[in-house]
Amino acid sequence: MAFSTRTLALAAAAPLSLALSGCIGGGDIPSASAPITQSEAQQGAELHPQLLAEFGGAMSGTQAQYVEQVGKNIAVQSGLGNARDSFTVSLVDSSVNNAFAIPGGYVYTTRQLVALMDNEAELAAVLGHEVAHVAARHSQRRQQAAQRNQIGGILGAIASSILLGNSEIGNTLSRTFLQGSQLLTLKFSRSQELQADDLGIQYLDSAGYDPDAMGTVLASLAQQNALDAQLLGRGDAKLPEWASTHPDPGSRVQTALQKAQPLGDGVTNQDTFLTRIDGLIYGDSPSQGMIEGRTFIHPELRLAFTAPSGFYMVNGTRAVSINGESGKAQMTLAQYGGNLETYVRQQFAALGGENQQLAPSNLERTTVNGIPAAYGTARVNNGNSQVDVVIFAYEFSNDRAYHFAAITPAGRSGVFSPMFNSMRRVSDSEAAGIIPRRLDVVTVRSGDTVQSLANRMAYDSAQVERFRVLNSLGTNDVLRAGQKVKIVVRGR
To answer: Which parts of the sequence belong to the LysM domain (predicted)?
Structure first.
């Protein structure tokens, strides 16, 4: 939750409307793309700063410059633009595995996805895949097929069916609850994903990269998705299908490898890649708040809370989402005028939207760990069932408040009570002791093993599994002296 001086304006802004190519079908693959049009360039230029704000902002420095260089080199293979300057390639400060592009030559990848890659060819493959979505005008076709293209609202109908059913209040609340989650991008059809893979492989071959890289990076993503589901699935929490940013990468791996087989060999530039990404921040950063197990702690905002047992959290740009089978919630902020009761009522009204009169049936004041707080509950008819909506707000200063918005089946809101009561202030000394995780590229020495290197991973659990996925190592793969591998350590 990267709250900063711009966050209040973002939180109050209208949803960002995008033709967003997130990460294929039928029809022949075009041999050349139509150049970027003036209207596409204008659209991209208008959306670019909004998109950067939504996904944590653009990173700078040598790592971002390297990603930009590789991205422009692969993008020119598409025919969208005849010069590298036709494209804007950004490394964004997000801890979610994702990449996307928008019309006008704007291409993005998150630092977390870059950290998962093994070589430069895989970086080129991911960026080429996203360029291919733009070159094939997939976003425009999806917009014509279905006008659900708002960040925070794209998957509202799918998410509402999980808990709330297909109803007006369900859809409205789900759209609100999905805002701020960096998991959301425009979902393309399977045929469009496959077509973007195919085009991306062509771009790799034209640029002199190993065309197998599309298949290998998809394999890494599939392994990471499986590990995430395993780690988040402890207790009764399960990773919902809609939370995958790149749907079904496992089934695309073999197809991509088969398409690449007839093509020539190319370079991977593995050593260069690993050298360039050494030290890249991994996972959450202190400036965005950090999830440690079931605890979220934000050293800059000086707050922390703990999710209920059996729930998992997703840290987004504008909110932290808390998800489980028995309910879902978000912690975020809004404009605060100094009155908690008014603030709570305003959040209910915002959840209800234009067509719903949503207000608490009761409103109580309390204190949580010394923090003034107020909360209210509303029971809402939702098709053939009912749900309870809770707003629980905290006053951190005269002009700053945060709140949880939670939805559960009727009578089950108590599942979130331990979380509501766990909100606390973070001391200066505790905040100073929070250190982010970073990639450390090391050379395997004689005697090093998967276990010995995994023991250096800055995690309390699943060290071996995390190490193997991070380095694309199978269960039976062993290390060799002189090999470079990535580990995750604590470091500023």
So the answer is: 440-487
